[in-house]
């Protein structure tokens, strides 16, 4: 009887902790939603009369252009490397993922310096032709169209990764059946492979669009009025937190529409395989001009998204980089690495706790709390920052007022503008990344192992440490690395919540770029790209070594 009471008490305590974690992680989103109904300072009506429709127009067109671009580029490259044989295919399989290491705002700084009037491209045109800048037309990279192109070459790997896995995992029986029915390569692709890969296409495009909506550095540097720049302006320039929250709610509505559309696109269709026959799929050998076209189509996004900007950054950093390189950069690097490392560890620990709690007790409450806790990745960093600043400032002011009245001294701002608030925002934003990886790793462990561990006298905690953790170690390291790099690249939440005199490499790059010191901005930008290469290379090696069935299962999980 005592043992039963202990188990009931333990399960109740576990559920209470899960609910508390979910509440804390959902608090910023709820705070933003509540402030829609609060009276403001009249800023909202001013925004609605002046720039609100411009925010909506630019945001919609950014989403439409980026969505079409990443879908076309991602599907094309994925199909070529998965189903065709041509020179360089083995290199393209992993190299096409490298643009994931480059933040969009770094690409914006790089190409602006490269393509501006005083840059090397236009200077070469004038030297060769003798023209003046007013005698020829050159596309303006700092425009809506330029932003769309940059987002496409940086974010297409989301679609590429998922589609390549989906193509490799498709049943050989389906492909063979299409061949016997007279389908050639093109009809087999358009009528069989593409419909079967529909969930992967929708999922990858949705991820790319969420990143587009969450971007602040690129649109701010290009001077494009969007919701992220409007939120920053409403909070800091106009000092109206209610208007910032109301803009955040509208942006959150865009994100929710994306999530609903991604789910709706699947409809009632089923995409599972009806056979276990996973053998090497038939591939198409490309020769002559067809091989040349395949190499060209795979090279363009790789060159534009990684090779060319990396070469430009290296050249700029070594020739005329930031003069403060030295002790100042050691401090910036330490701030970035320490914050990213702390959040990576906390995110993995929380993800393991939530995923293992669901495994121990898969009730509606535990499953629901884990899903609520992982909602943050679909929310832009600027929205999360506003949702955190409001309750933290209220708490700090209330505590300060109480200590003044009761004890006669002021506590000041304890949490607002502190590292606690910044780490809190990072966890809300990126816990879902860690959750997905940990869930996939834990799902591969057969439940029979839990039963065997119990018969050997191991409790749930010791089973996790001695049985599950060694098996999951690779997945845990992958989750930590991905969160680490995401935190290194995060800009809007860092700008809004960082403590005084606590700058990171991302903030340094943004500040230098805003001051039009683009060459100096190459130094911190190159450091961010170098840090992002580590998990991308590890991820590409893991995918290359995995068998098609395994990689597909992991991606589906």
Write the layout of secondary structure elements.
Elements: H1 2-34, H2 43-50, H3 52-83, E1 84-85, H4 89-95, H5 104-115, H6 120-129, H7 144-169, H8 172-180, H9 185-196, H10 198-214, H11 217-222, H12 227-237, H13 241-266, E2 284-285, H14 289-320, H15 327-360, H16 364-373, H17 381-407, H18 419-443, H19 448-455, H20 460-489, H21 492-497, H22 505-514, H23 518-545, H24 548-556
Parallel strand pairs: 1-2
Helix pairs in contact: 1-16, 1-17, 3-4, 3-7, 3-10, 3-14, 5-14, 5-23, 7-10, 7-14, 7-24, 10-13, 12-13, 13-17, 14-23, 15-16, 15-18, 15-20, 17-18, 18-20, 20-23, 22-23
Annotation keywords:
MetI-like fold, disordered N terminus, 557 residues, mainly alpha, globular, two-stranded parallel ribbon, 2 domains, disordered C terminus
What is the count of distinct domains? Answer: 2
SS elements, strand count = 2
Which CATH first-tier class of the largest domain would you pick?
Mainly Alpha
Hey, roughly how much beta strand do the residues contain?
under 5%
Binned, the helix content reads over 70%
Radius of gyration: 25 Å
- Name the CATH superfamily classification of the largest domain: MetI-like
Distance between the first and last residues' Cα: 39 Å
Q: Based on CA inertia axes, which overall geometry fits? A: globular
Give the SSE string.
HHHEHHHHHHHHHHEHHHHHHHHHHH
Q: For the residues shown, what is the average pLDDT?
A: 78
Number of helices: 24
Q: Biggest sheet: strands, sense, closure? A: 2 strands, parallel
Low-confidence stretches: 1-8, 268-279, 547-557
CATH topology of the largest domain: MetI-like fold
């Amino acid at each position: 009887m005592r043992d039963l009471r202990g188990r009931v008490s333990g399960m109740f305590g576990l559920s209470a902790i899960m609910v508390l974690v979910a509440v804390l992680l959902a608090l910023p989103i709820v705070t933003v939603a509540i402030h829609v109904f609060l009276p403001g300072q009249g800023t909202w009506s001013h925004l609605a009369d002046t720039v609100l429709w411009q925010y909506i127009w630019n945001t919609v067109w950014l989403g439409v252009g980026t969505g079409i671009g990443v879908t076309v580029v991602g599907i094309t490259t994925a199909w070529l490397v998965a189903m065709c044989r041509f020179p360089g295919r083995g290199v393209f399989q992993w190299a096409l993922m490298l643009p994931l290491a480059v933040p969009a705002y770094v690409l914006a700084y790089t190409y602006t310096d490269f393509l501006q009037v005083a840059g090397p491209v236009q200077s070469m045109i004038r030297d060769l032709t003798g023209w003046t800048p007013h005698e020829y037309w050159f596309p303006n990279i700092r425009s809506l169209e330029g932003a769309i192109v940059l987002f496409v070459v940086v974010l297409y790997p989301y679609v590429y990764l998922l589609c390549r896995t989906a193509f490799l995992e498709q049943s050989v029986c389906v492909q063979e059946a299409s061949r016997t029915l007279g389908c050639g390569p093109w009809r087999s692709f358009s009528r069989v492979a593409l419909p079967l890969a529909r969930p992967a296409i929708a999922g990858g495009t949705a991820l790319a669009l969420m990143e587009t909506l969450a971007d602040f550095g690129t649109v701010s540097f290009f001077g494009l009025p969007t919701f992220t720049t409007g939120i920053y302006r409403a909070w800091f320039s106009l000092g109206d937190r209610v208007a910032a929250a109301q803009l955040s709610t509208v942006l959150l509505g865009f994100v929710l529409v994306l999530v609903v559309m991604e789910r709706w696109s699947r409809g009632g269709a089923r995409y599972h395989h009806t056979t276990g026959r996973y053998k090497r799929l038939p591939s198409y050998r490309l020769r002559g001009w067809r091989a040349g076209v395949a190499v060209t189509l795979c090279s363009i996004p790789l060159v534009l998204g990684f090779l060319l900007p990396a070469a430009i950054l290296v050249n700029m950093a070594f020739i005329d980089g930031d003069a403060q390189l030295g002790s100042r950069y050691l401090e910036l690097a330490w701030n970035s690495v320490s914050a990213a490392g702390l959040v990576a560890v906390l995110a993995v620990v929380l993800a393991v706790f939530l995923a293992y709690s669901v495994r121990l007790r898969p009730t509606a409450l535990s499953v629901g709390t884990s899903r609520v806790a992982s909602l943050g990745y679909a929310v832009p960093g600027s929205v999360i920052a506003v949702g955190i600043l409001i309750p933290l400032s209220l708490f700090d002011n209330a505590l300060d007022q109480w200590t003044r009245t009761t004890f006669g001294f002021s506590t000041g701002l304890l949490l607002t503008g502190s590292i606690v608030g910044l780490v809190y925002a990072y966890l809300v934003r990126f816990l879902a990344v860690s959750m997905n990886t940990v869930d996939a790793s834990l799902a591969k462990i057969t439940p029979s192992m839990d039963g065997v561990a119990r018969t050997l006298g191991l409790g749930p905690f010791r089973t996790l440490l001695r049985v599950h953790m060694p098996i999951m170690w690779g997945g845990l390291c992958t989750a930590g690395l991905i969160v680490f790099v995401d935190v290194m690249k995060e800009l809007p939440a860092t700008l809004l919540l960082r403590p005084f005199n606590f700058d990171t490499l991302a903030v340094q790059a943004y500040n230098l770029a805003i001051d039009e010191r683009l060459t100096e901005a190459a130094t911190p930008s190159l450091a961010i790209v170098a840090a992002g290469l580590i998990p991308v290379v590890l991820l590409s090696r893991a995918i290359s070594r995995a068998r098609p069935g395994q990689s597909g299962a992991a991606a589906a999980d």
